[in-house]
Design brief:
about 300 residues; 11 helices; plasmid; 4-hydroxy-tetrahydrodipicolinate synthase activity; Dihydrodipicolinate synthase family protein; lyase
Length: about 300
């Protein structure tokens, strides 16, 4: 992260480990964070969708927020995801993140299921309310919410809500939207990042993304791609990206958040790749194929605990 507050580089989402009985593995969470720091990343995001935030109770969320920020202890910056349909709850989560030392909060627009979706004005009002807390906000533009966030709305929020500074663009045609957002928003768009495990990272970097919010599976390799591209060596970035793309594709299209957990279990970061019901376990065939893609890359996640 630059001194001007712009987020650059690789910002992996930390997976949430559980024991085989479904209870949170709090020691495993500490080890996850240590492993991610050892990957040499620029920062970390907790309690996001790839952290299985939708399978975690409010009490567990608070406990994980406190544990994570205490354990990281300023070694790298931490973004805390605070998405909720209810604006007062999102505001309360933002206050906790601010008080515990998070560098920013990330939030999707208000939604609940397929039919409860915030309008443009409701979305604006929620981000404005969170902005009053006084911690920088990353808007997560993800298909999961089902809420349309057109570029003019994003630019309006960036210009009128001081704390709206960062953007995770992971919608279809992300590169097109990033390019338009940067062109229309100018300096108000402090940090345009991409997501979706980096599956469109190269065109997104070409479009002006300053970094990516990836998974924690191969973060050090993701960071190398971003660093090469930002350093002006696109040919190197292409070569590095080409090498890791099969693993990213397998993660993005077949495994989802279970991929990073499988890699970290293989690397003895934590013991169980359990996911709470109704999420099914990763099929043994998919797991074997994933690890086959990963082994030539020798990722830190797969050797950290050995």
């Amino acid at each position: 992260m630059s001194v001007q507050g712009q987020l650059t580089g690789a910002w992996p989402v930390a997976p949430t480990p559980f024991h085989d009985d479904g209870a949170l593995d709090m020691d495993g969470m500490r080890r996850v964070l240590d492993c991610i720091i050892d990957q040499g990343v620029d920062g970390v995001c907790i309690l996001a969708n790839f952290s299985e935030q939708f399978l975690i109770t409010d009490e567990e969320r608070e406990a994980l927020t406190r544990l994570s920020l205490d354990h990281v202890a300023g070694r790298i910056p931490v973004i805390v995801t605070i998405s909720h349909y209810a604006t007062p709850i999102a505001v309360a989560r933002a206050r906790l993140a601010r008080d515990l030392g998070a560098v920013a909060v990330m939030m999707m627009p208000p939604y609940h299921g397929a039919l409860l979706k915030g309008t443009a004005e409701q979305t604006y009002a929620q981000f404005a309310a969170v902005g009053e807390v006084g911690i920088p906000i990353m808007i997560q533009d993800a298909p999961l919410s089902g809420v349309d966030l057109p570029v003019p709305l994003l630019v309006r929020m960036a210009r009128e809500i001081e704390m709206v500074q960062h953007f995770k663009i992971e919608c279809p045609q992300a590169a097109v939207k990033l390019r338009a957002l940067i062109a229309e928003g100018g300096g108000a768009i402090v940090s345009p990042l991409d997501g979706e495990e980096g599956i469109t990272m190269l065109p997104d970097l070409d479009a002006g993304a300053t970094g990516t919010m990836c998974s924690a599976m191969i973060s050090e390799h993701i960071a190398e791609v971003v660093a090469a591209h930002r350093g002006g060596d696109r040919d190197k970035a292409v070569a590095l990206y080409t090498r890791i793309l099969p693993a990213i594709n397998h993660e993005n299209r077949l495994c989802g958040f279970r991929a990073a957990k499988a890699a970290m279990v293989e690397g003895k970061v934590f013991a169980s790749d359990f996911c709470r019901h109704p999420v099914p376990p990763l099929a043994s065939e998919l797991r074997a194929e994933l690890l086959g893609h990963l082994r030539p890359l020798d990722p830190i996640s797969m050797k950290w605990g050995h």
